[in-house]
Design goal:
single chain; mainly beta; five-stranded antiparallel sheet
């Protein structure tokens, strides 16, 4: 399976947007094509009540996002 989300995107043009109670994850890159793998991770920009309105960037486990948030927007690859 080819990874269609391997190219890093800008925070204003993410592949997906996930949200939950003041938190927002913008998926900027998917490291693997299969998000169901146990340690699958995404490169994200994250905004929360603790970031004072700024974005923090880094890798996040896919399972952690899916467990705590709801997908609000699918912009790029599936």
């Amino acid at each position: 399976m080819k990874n269609e989300c391997l190219k890093t995107r800008d925070v204003n043009d993410p592949y997906e947007i996930w949200q939950n109670e003041g938190w927002e994850w913008r998926v900027l890159k998917k490291w693997q094509a299969d998000d169901a793998k146990p340690y699958a991770r995404w490169y994200c920009a994250v905004k929360s009540p603790f970031t004072m309105g700024s974005w923090e960037y880094g890798d996040v486990y896919v399972a952690e996002i899916k467990k705590n948030a709801v997908k609000k927007e699918q912009i790029g690859c599936s």
